[in-house]
């Protein structure tokens, strides 16, 4: 039997219970993942369809999540654009692009996902034959990907990205346009390959003021959502964006994912009840005592009431130090909950 709870919630349809999945649910907190990781590099896992599919399936098998999210990384299409990407243990991604003038942007490619990212599409095809829950494809949002390219990796201040954004409009617009074209093609190829929903991660959007988000990021994210083909739900997740969550809604998405920095009931009211909502447990709540964790889970479930359209998730990705037993507790608590 195919479990379509997640898809029905995305479409604001009634569900017997609340669907639940977790961002980064396939990862280092699982022993089964660690066994695969000891034999293969991270990028080898991303680029090998059979390995990516296996790691995607692991948490669904072990915990009974109501959706699977494809195992990959938001920088996979950036690498296909011609940017060198290296994952350094203990540091994270290090990118080798030099973007000093408009000619540097012109040197980047808009990759053909069927040629340059076929391994992602092949993993989706494998998974559709094996999964009994919906499969979520994903991409980074244009602002987040542009920031990675300009900063050369992670950042606290986004000094380089914002300097280009404010002072080099030709570079910024050219880079954002090229990334947007890449994301659109990439997500539509995932949908065609069989992804039953897609999520756009704007993990760094919270670095922007509302004014800057509206001027420098929103138009590009909106073009992504407006260009998605097929009748699949789209989730829009931003981190640190509760101050202007209405603008996240304006940019697009059938479901708006929210982090833990806002009360979920308030967030939904501000977003509007014609959109679904996803979230928003603090990932570190999974490090709390069981009774504390249960209370926090219940607070979110009660805070969204019996209105259809809520998907239980974390407010960001699960941490590698998380106990698998706490994840099991979370899934069980959500599945047992009844608003009646």
What distinguishing features does this structure have?
single chain, 340 residues, TIM Barrel, seven-stranded parallel beta sheet, two-stranded antiparallel sheet, globular
What would you note in describing this structure?
This protein has helices at residues 5-10, 31-39, 42-47, 49-63, 76-80, 102-106, 113-116, 118-130, 142-151, 159-167, 169-193, 210-226, 245-251, 264-271, 290-303, 324-336; strands spanning 68-69, 85-88, 92-95, 135-140, 197-202, 234-238, 255-257, 276-281, 310-314. It is globular and about 55 Å long. Helix 13 (245-251) links the parallel strand 6 (234-238) and strand 7 (255-257). Helix 11 (169-193) packs parallel to helix 12 (210-226). It contains 16 helices and nine strands. It is an alpha/beta fold and 340 residues long. The protein starts with a helix and ends with a helix. The chain has one domain (5-336): TIM Barrel, CATH 3.20.20.210. The strands form two sheets. It has a seven-stranded parallel β-sheet with strand order 1-4-5-6-7-8-9. Strands 2-3 form a two-stranded antiparallel ribbon.
């Amino acid at each position: 039997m195919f479990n379509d709870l997640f898809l029905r919630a995305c479409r604001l349809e009634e569900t017997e219970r609340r669907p639940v999945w977790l961002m980064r649910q396939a990862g280092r907190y699982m022993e089964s993942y660690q066994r695969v990781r000891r034999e293969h590099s991270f990028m080898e896992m991303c680029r090998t369809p059979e390995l990516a599919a296996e790691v995607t399936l692991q948490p669904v098998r072990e915990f009974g999540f109501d959706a699977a999210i494809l195992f990959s990384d938001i920088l996979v299409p950036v690498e296909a654009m011609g940017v060198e990407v290296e994952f350094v243990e203990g540091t994270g991604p290090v990118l080798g692009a030099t973007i000093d003038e408009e000619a540097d942007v012109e040197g980047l490619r808009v990759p053909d996902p069927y040629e340059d990212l076929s391994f992602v599409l092949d993993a989706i095809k494998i998974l559709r034959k094996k999964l009994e829950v919906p499969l979520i494809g994903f991409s980074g949002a244009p602002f987040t990907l542009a920031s990675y390219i300009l900063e050369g990796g992670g950042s606290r201040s986004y000094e380089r990205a914002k300097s280009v954004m404010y002072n080099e409009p030709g570079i910024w617009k050219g880079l954002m346009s090229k990334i947007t074209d890449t994301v659109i093609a990439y997500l539509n190829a995932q949908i065609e390959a069989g992804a039953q929903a897609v999520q756009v991660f704007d993990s760094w959007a919270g670095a922007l003021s509302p004014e800057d988000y509206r001027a420098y990021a929103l138009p590009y994210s909106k073009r992504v959502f407006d260009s998605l083909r097929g009748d699949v739900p789209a989730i829009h997740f931003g981190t640190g964006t509760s101050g202007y969550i209405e603008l996240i809604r304006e940019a697009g998405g059938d479901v708006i994912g929210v982090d833990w920095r806002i009360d979920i009931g308030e967030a939904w009211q501000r977003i509007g009840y014609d959109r679904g909502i996803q979230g928003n447990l603090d990932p570190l709540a999974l490090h709390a005592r069981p009774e504390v964790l249960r209370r926090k889970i219940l607070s979110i479930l009660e805070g969204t009431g019996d209105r259809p359209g809520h998907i239980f998730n974390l407010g960001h990705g699960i941490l590698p130090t998380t106990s698998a037993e706490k994840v099991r507790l979370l899934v069980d608590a959500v599945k047992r909950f009844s608003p009646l």
